[in-house]
Amino acid sequence: MRRTAVAHDRIAGAVRAPLRWLRHAGGNVAFGLIDQAALSGSAFVLTIVLANVLEISAFGSFSVAWSFSILIEAVLLRGLFDDGLPATAHRIPKSLWPQLRLGLYMSSLLVSGALGALLVIAGAVMMAVGADGSGLVIATGLAIPAVRLQSMFRRIAYLDGRLPRALVSSLTYCCALVVSGGLMMASGITSAAAAMGCIAISAAIAGSLVLTTTRQLAWPQPRIVRGSLQRLFRNGRWFVATSLTYWIGSIGLIPFCGLLIGLEASASLRILLLVFAPLSQFCATMFSVRLPEIAAELRAGKRNAVTAAARENAMLLGSIAIAYGAVIVLFGERILSLVIHGQAYQIGAGSLGLMAVAMGLDAVWLGLALPLFATGKPQKFMLSRIAGLVALCCALPFAAQAWHVTGAIAAMVASSAASVIVVVLTNSAREQT
User: What is the DSSP string of 329-398?
Assistant: First the structure.
């Protein structure tokens, strides 16, 4: 028993040592970056594997299903439950946060489970009538509540400042994805539905870590849940609307391109978005880490910090986006030729350069938007996203038909530019009043 205790202490010390080093090196930002790098890396590896083993049209089908899962999770559910959480949580005493946590788990799982069940039923009906893609629809329906559970676990970890907990969840997801993906390859079941099933299983395993945090949960009083959800949903409609316009102008182009110019274009656009995924994940990390901090500062009465924080974050994210885009333009084609073999995707220097411009503009927009998200007032930025959506709708049909994937990305640039221009003009008008 004594030897066991000594061994346990040594293991715990070995684990705590790198965690202390990470805190010293950069605190929550370091944990957040590693957390997002783990998720981004796992998505990158899975997508590259599928791009090599699936036919282009099958990979396009997977990309379309993935884009709709992002619509449900990252736009609808995250907009309703996650984006307004810091502003909502800081309005109630921390002694009530255990009730808030459990209430969020229960309500978000209820909504995501209902949406997933509808997809499973739709897939079963498609299977009964012999329609193609039924297995992929069913697997997507199973993935939605699993991914929501993991996302909620990580969001609460960010809110509590327990980023090591979020990192453990992400690493668990990566390991489960490697194992399940390996089994899929070994068994010879390489299909879009099987790949989505791997995502569902891995997310469920990572989300099950919530069972290790039961001491931080308490059965919620109805008034606590009702009041918090009302506040979340009241602001959530604006978060959803803002995120929806962003989805339409980026990931949402995958199904639109599939409809306009074929599934091969959807597959190529998915690869392009994957190349810039590390940049998007970095921006998302900075957003998640800084959002609770800025919310607490503004709640403390530091209202004059809104404009300064917007400029600071826009300059930071914009500078990093410029550097990242330059590297991709110079070496992107070489990197893709090394990791993708035997498939002819519509990707060249022109499309990589245009995508770099679009993602850079989106990074600047996110930096400008962060303080108003922290105050729970995303509606003030909604006008900019509407302007971007109008520009996209005007440019996409003609550009995609004329220049295919490159034209679709050019429409993304027009959309992002319109959003940034409008938000800058809106901020200038607000400062003058």
Answer: HHHHHHHHHHH--S------HHHHHHHHHHHHHHHHHHHHHHHHHHTT-GGGGHHHHHHHHHHHHHHHHH
For 189: left if phi > 0, alpha if psi spans -120 to 50, otherwise beta; the answer is beta
CA-to-CA distance for 12 and 364, rounded, in angstroms? 41
Separation between Cα atoms, residue 118 and residue 140, nearest integer Å: 11
Centroid of chain to Cα 10: 36
pLDDT at 300: 62
Cα–Cα distance, 232 to 376 (Å, whole number): 9
Q: What is the pLDDT of residues 260-275, one digit of tens each?
A: 888 889 999 999 998 9
Q: Which residues of 37-74 are buried (b: 16+ CB within 10 A; e: fewer)?
A: bbbbebbbebbebbbebbebebbbbbbbbbbbbbbbbb
The predicted model gives 407-433 an average pLDDT of 82
- Does residue 77 contact residue 111 with C-beta atoms inside 8 Å? yes
Asked if 155 and 145 touch (Cβ cutoff 8 Å), the reply is: no
Report residue 211: phi and psi, to 5°: -65, -20
- Count of Cβ atoms closer than 10 Å to residue 121 Cβ: 13
Cα–Cα dist 304/298, whole Å: 9
For residue 400, the tally of other CB atoms under 10 A from its CB is 23
What angle (nearest 5°) sits at the alpha carbon of residue 216, between those of residues 212 and 217? 95
DSSP state of 92: S
- How far apart are the C-alpha atoms of 393 and 372, rounded to whole Å? 26
Dist CA 146 CA 203 (whole Å): 5
pLDDT digits (tens, 9 = 90+) for 163-218: 889 999 999 999 999 999 999 888 888 899 999 999 999 999 999 999 999 999 99
Do the Cβ atoms of 333 and 352 come closer than 8 Å?
A: yes
45: its two tokens? 């590896």
Percentages of the chain per state (helix, strand, coil), in multiples of 5: 90, 0, 10
CA angle 86, 160, 85 (to 5 degrees): 20
